[in-house]
Structure formats: C-alpha cells, structure tokens
Please model this.
Amino acid sequence: MAVEAREPVVPVADERTLTVLRERALSAMDRAYAPYSGFRVGAALLASDGSITEGCNIENASFPATICAERSAVAAAVSRGNRSFDAVMIATEAEEPTPPCGVCRQVLVEFAPRLAVISVTRGGREARWTLDELLPQAFTPDSMDRR
Model:
C-alpha cells in the first residue's frame, strides 16, 4: 500500500536549501554499498543549525548488519553533536519516491517528530510528508514517562 504524499505542515526550507539537499542526497546515493539488493539510497539530513549530513545505505552479507541511508545520516549527525533536525531528503533510483522504512522512521522520530521528509528519484519525481504522518502514534521518549 503506497503512502499518500502531501505537502508537509511544517515549513521545509527555501528552494536553494532544497536544491542542495537534493544534490547531496543524490551524491550520497552514488556512494551506497548495495551489492545484494541493488537498491541504492542516499540521504541528506538538515539539522536545525543549517548543517547538512549525508548518509547512504551500507549492506552486509549478514543482512541484519545492514544500515539504511537515513540511519547512517542520523548516526553521523549525532556523532557531530547535532540532535535537532528539520528535514531529510531521501534519494533512490526507484520509479516512485520512497518513504523511509519503519526502523528509520523510529530512529528519526527520536530526534524530530515533525520532521519534513522529502523523497526524490533520479528521474525527478518527488513526494513530501511529515514524519508524524508516516509514523502516527509513535513510541517516543515521552512514551517512557513512568509518572
């Protein structure tokens, strides 16, 4: 079942920033290591401070050790001290724009429940969502409130 794309409720970014995110996500996709699935993915994560961190999927012969592009970008950004994000651009070679997988949605919601999620294809198609549309009723740090 396809997820219906809508314009995010939160402001994404200006067109110049979106263009840079798109270019960086496509570039990251070109560096992906996907010898098993052949499904290369790149991500460009926009931090609230304006910095951009890229990630790509890295597959492994032991499939559970595979890491998605979005989680790769989050890990790199958090390692640099960023924990607040405004948008993620995801690039694939699929015909239709692809939203993040469930595990990536869960990792992203930890830092940005209202994150703007933009997916583009090499062919120029684009879809936009907010993370809370893609992961309604998410399990968040607030879910662990024991009071």
